[in-house]
Amino acid sequence: MVCTNNTMKSFSGLLLLTLLVLGLPQASLLAAKEVTTFEVPDARAEFCGPHMQIGFCRCAFSDEGCDVINITQEEAYNFIERKYREWVKGLIQTAGEQCLSENGRWNTNTRQCTTCTEGQVLDGTACVAPEEARDVVGGQCQALRDFGEDWRAYSDFNQSSAASEASAEVQEYNRTLETFAQKVAAAHALAYDMEIDRQVRLDLLAYNTALIAGLPETVSPALARLTLVSNSLVPESSEVESPYIALVDPASLDETVGTKLTTIASSAASGSPPKFSVSDTVEQVEASAWGTSLSIITGIGDPTASATQALVGIRAATPALELTDEEVAILQQEHRTTLRADKALAQSYAANAVRRRERLGLETEIATLYNELERWRGAEYSRAQAALEASCQQ
What is the pLDDT of residues 328-371, one digit of tens each? Predict the structure, then answer.
């Protein structure tokens, strides 16, 4: 059988894409060599059901039945991700141990197990008759024996090679890496916006709580903070707009309250609040993608932590706001008659639902591109190894 590249996808925390051994030997340069290759097991077909309750999988992948098991789609997805990672890790360990127990050579870079057939034995990376086995030292053959440790130096990934002169495998790897990094950065930008929106939503809830209490000393700082944050960090996503700007727009409020909020809104506009940097994330991903697991790559930049840090400094600079009892009463009346705050909350949840769907789509593409990267890296490994083997035999 040949496993497909469909896998579970994750941006807070996306899946560890390791490989499962297949029973089909690939073509080899030597007839007495058998190579078995490892590929990603299909999460939905091979993990869901036999190893994970199907209800969790339906909730995580299709947003179906989440209410039955009393869990959100994101929570179900994160739970399955963790369990899937543990399961795959065990499969990889078992496959590697089996390879070594059969006197095979396990390659951690290409996830391949090489065993000799027809009575031959391994001599470095070559299969030879037992009487021909030798301890080669010096020259290219010694390099071949150590190839698994420093193979990049013998490949066209070597930085001394011009990009235009690199092998087709390396050029495809680089093109895939560029697209991969852009997708990861886009998913991170959405995660950043989602966290900003979530935390501003908490500010709105705090303001509502204070407004219901009807105490100026609690309403004033809550409204000032909500105004400053709403005007300082408008989400980057072009598909959705912040539902909070209209809520604290001075022109939409009572004139006396609106005048006081104008100063706070102006102070936010004059600053330079931190924004999520897509270009920086692209650079970080491209620089660290080599031989790195997908779960580590998708943690680069930590957009959630960046969003939290951005808000810390802004909230600390919140100007003082003094509202009178009469002004608080006006806000309470406005709240009851327009339901503006409730509408803003509903819009916030809807906006984040749009972002969440887009993130899930990006995570699907990211997982596919990661597998593509690994495939081209393995192809270049095989190409460089074959060239070195040919040189060694001359």
Answer: 888 888 877 888 888 888 888 888 889 999 999 999 999 999 99
Q: Is residue 198 part of a domain?
A: yes
Locate tokens 């706001």: which residue?
Answer: 321
pTM of full prediction above 0.85: no
- The residues with which 114 forms a beta bridge, in sequence order, are 35, 105
The domain containing residue 58 runs over which residues? 1-134
Instruction: Tell the burial category of 336 from Cβ atoms under 10 Å away from its Cβ (0-12, 13-18, 19+).
Output: exposed
The Cα 114–Cα 43 span in angstroms is: 26
Residue 76, judged by CB atoms within 10 A of its CB (0-12, 13-18, 19+), counts as: buried
My answer on whether 109 and 198 are in the same domain is no
Q: Are 218 and 359 in a shared domain?
A: yes
- Do 180 and 116 share a structural domain? no
| Same domain, residue pair 126 and 204 | no
284 or 250: which leads in pLDDT: 284
* 121 and 185 assigned to the same domain: no
Same domain, 128 and 182: no
Q: Is the same domain home to 206 and 265?
A: yes
